[in-house]
Design a protein that fits this description.
Four copies of one chain form a homotetramer. The first copy, chain A, is built from eleven helices and 15 strands. By secondary structure, chain A is an alpha/beta fold. β13 of chain A pairs antiparallel with β12 of chain D.
């Protein structure tokens, strides 16, 4: 079986995770990396015995050995990088968000539709076994019709410093586009409906240093969908207990919670603090398997010439809703979306 | 020690609970009841050996033996009944809500302020040991400044039939006034701040029969407070798993959840359904001790000539915010409150 | 309704709890206390406005106003004090264990059987709502036939100092008689069977100072019952997380756990330690309601002239099995019981 | 990198799992299988494109392409198959137990020690991340010295039928050797001590059909170790709720529980049964990752020429203790072990 040869663009925290996962897959080769920092490139190249390393994305995608590219560059480059990869006939895995600007996204969506290449967007929660289990319960009607969804994505305080450094360099797009986009995607995936109104709030009580960066430490958004579902989101950057991703679905016949407590593992400790469940500390830990599963699905799609169930439209909608949340927060008013 | 003599007005479900609690208190006498249904009166009178029973509230409060009255009549009568009791020099315990109309409430508040009688409003969650424990943690600063509160009050589907019967006879005031008023009080109690904006949504997916009654089966409200706290409420009438009252407080230094699962007791069952925690089935079960505690506090206030910490103003604000939620839901828009 | 007048003998930790519970009961009077320490007597007498206080048990029971006595004296005096109370025609509530010596217990059982007075033994777990709920499930056959029971009673390390002080003054009878006797009673109550073999082990790793007192810090006992149930007990004195009382019942059709985690309340805290459930800290906290319930039942038995379901025989068997555990531990061998 | 070529012997339930895991490993080839049933061989060979398939173990190990063998044959053949593989210079992964007879095990241990080949015994719990996390806490002293361990391995009732079929064909060695051997290994691994006394009990209440097979449906064993640790084991075959593997460690400074409830995933469901956590249904589900991890470690040991931390002596001790439990149960007496 010929190996599928993949290049990873961007060796930040998540780029390194994808590189590692690709390296460990059978019948797959981590053939190239592109990244600005030559020192990092060198270390990664040696660690995984990678044939090629580039300091420019454009240089990498001209490597004719490549079958596919995994784009983990800053969000602002996504649409451009997708387009260039498709132009070179490469299959594309792109981290979320698909882009920051809806017109640019629409343009690249046209490219994607016209292409026969695989396009896979990195909404990894769709490949997390807990989310999949819940989705299957919902689809079987086990909780009836959905009335309410609540979804939290709260980063640990331990990561605040590096976020501040990151946000100083390039805008995150705001907390809704940076973080809630996963929750928005889950809501659309679970309900198969679209958001029509949003009201968002937020503050910087725990991290006043974010004021200067035009960022918020914790934000909420209440979303009303076109099928009469209400959703409530919390996104944050300062959880003292770890990485808290939790989703609740209230249906007419029952309720489901996914990760009601952000357990690290199956261990319970009884000590002077009480009965303690250790907590998941970050996204690489919480979604380790989901990142592997989505990459396997990407490779399967390439090998068996099909498309993943998550689409570029899902990416566009995620960005549009997140942008509406950001706008609602900034204007402090209820916003209606039109697509 | 002379017993404190109390009359209970209204022998519905909650009236019977208060009657039973008063009956069992030491140095307290359940001296009278008033209630429209003579048959019920007779049964209750016999059960507790109650000296007097009346079919009219006005008749009861003229009984000079009484020290105090416990008002559990329909909400629309509360302000009138409070006023009359105070006019007769009686101490007053009144079930929530203090009233349905803010002008009427303001008028009776004046009466209460001018009186030296004890006035106690039945926000029993303030006397629930779990809520008290959380409040104390908050006041000690253990979770820092509050950013977000989430509070659910969802009645079991098993009670839907009797609610429909009840709502056919007299308007409940809507789900926010009927149910969320407890959550609104908790939010004000925990934050010591006032609600300034609300957006409410709701639907009748699980109980379309409520459409005809102008009621909703499940409602949400997002509240913004004047100290930058955002609160999210869910009120419902169709939980398949029991009586679900849950409150979460997200602070800058930690989070608290009260009754994250609505456990009936400390028992866990492992059977063909999985690992099962039996659930609390209704408010008398969940708040049994809280109802006793609040009545003890009422009696202490009478005996030691002081006022409870919960005030008529708390009642007014609860009604005002709940009414704003109802209005927001009906108009489908974001509302700003002015007091 | 004439009040039932009760005298409390012994004002240690548990004596004070019983006194307080009796004081708060309606139609019941805390008429007398007896206790060696005059200073304590004075304080308690004032606090509860108690008519009589004695420094001798024998003096108290001659008070003809008394209907009943609540014996909370050191275990070694129980049989003697029961006998004397019955001789004075008093109803008797006696704390566990009924006695330390089986011949003495058998003698007093004869007295109890020949008397028409109420005799109530303080196995309060039989009046704890969680244990009652489990017992009812078992009796309804919901978990089938019982195969295995596991029951833990572990005191918090915070109480070790006072235990050492106590044990220096008078022998506790060993950890099995002092603590496991509750678990043994639960096992007999749940299974309605008798223990036939025991093997007990223990050590003082966490509290070597107990070696000098001939006590153990943590002990286990494996019991085989005459209906093929195996039970495993843990008793301890050094839990770092609080007061841990937990019971598990494995049946042919399901399993039940009572207090799988020793939760203090319904609050969950998320902080730098992880997801934390605060823990119950001591027996007065964990069994507060059970102590009230058992005293109510004692009073009901007196008033309605019946006997409680827990019997003196239950007390005898509890002591016999606990003594066998102690002996097995000391001899380091498997012991067979004969009754 | 040259692939490591492995042959799998025995294609029962667990053999198929190991085959699948080996197939998916990078730089590893599933080169051969041996199994009595030709039809199964054919299906597996096709599914994974396996070069060779044999109906005889002896034939397979003569294939000179092989580097290693994974033995998942019936327990009675393990020692013989290990020996033959070593004689052919193959690295050996062998499922637990290492053997049924301690003399045979000792003989093969000599072979293993004299060989430079990797020998890896399939105690997969040592490669489960929850058990590893607990072991690391213990080794860091976070719960002090161990006093008590409790460990359960209970198979689901859904698997009883296939166990009965299996046990009719070849003796399982009894429930302690078949199931508790994992718990015994965990106890030895956690405590680094040896068992000196055992007392075992059991019954067939839930599955009387096992009487005819000389098997028990549920068994317990109490073990005393040479460092004053007491362990309590439960092994069963009829859990109505799924596959229940749980381990508790009580130390002088704290307690740990691994899988206190046998959660299938992170989902909680609220429905008419209460608050429900779905349960793990079988060992392939519960230990999926552990089986992969141990095989990775086996391959690493081969590639980097080292031995795994779990040794043949661990296998011998596991079998000896399990056999002592079985003997104690059969004789109904406390047994002392000598090694």
């Amino acid at each position: 079986m010929n190996p599928i040869k993949i290049g990873v663009a961007g060796l930040g925290r998540l780029g390194l995770i994808h590189a590692d996962n690709i390296h460990h897959m059978k019948h797959v080769e981590l053939t190239a990396v592109s990244n600005l920092d030559e020192q990092v490139n060198k270390e990664v190249q040696e660690k995984y015995s990678i044939p090629y390393a580039y300091t420019s994305y454009e240089a990498m995608i001209q490597n004719n050995e490549l079958d596919a590219v995994c784009i983990v560059t800053p969000s602002g480059f996504h649409t451009e990088h997708i387009q260039k990869a498709l132009d070179h006939g490469l299959h594309v895995f792109c981290e979320k968000p698909i882009g920051l600007d809806s017109d640019e996204i629409k343009a690249v969506m046209k490219k994607i539709e016209d292409s026969d290449r695989v396009f896979h967007l990195g909404f990894m929660r769709r490949y997390d076994e807990d989310y999949v289990y819940a989705k299957e319960m919902i689809d079987r009607g086990q909780i009836g019709d959905i009335s309410i969804i609540r979804s939290y994505g709260i980063d640990p305080i331990s990561g605040l410093g590096s976020f501040v450094d990151f946000a100083k360099k390039s805008p995150s797009g705001g907390i809704y586009l940076d973080m809630s986009v996963h929750d928005i995607d889950v809501i659309r995936w679970f309900t198969e409906a679209e958001v029509k109104k949003v009201w968002a709030t937020g503050n910087n009580k725990a991290a006043p240093e974010l004021n200067a960066l035009n960022e918020v430490e914790i934000g909420t958004a209440t979303l009303q969908l076109n099928n009469d579902v209400t959703a409530f989101l919390v996104a944050g950057r300062t959880a003292s207990h770890g990485y808290h991703v939790e989703t609740e679905v209230i249906g007419t016949k029952g309720m489901i919670r996914i990760a009601a407590t952000p357990d690290k593992n199956k261990v319970t400790v009884f000590n002077e603090h009480g009965t303690v469940r250790p907590t998941s500390q970050n996204f690489p830990e919480r979604f380790r398997e989901a990142y592997i599963n989505e990459m396997k699905e990407f490779v399967h799609c390439i090998r068996y010439e099909r498309q993943p169930s998550v689409t570029a439209l899902d990416g566009l909608r995620g960005t549009e809703v997140a942008a509406a949340c950001q706008q609602s927060f900034e204007k402090d008013e209820l916003l209606e979306l039109s697509y």
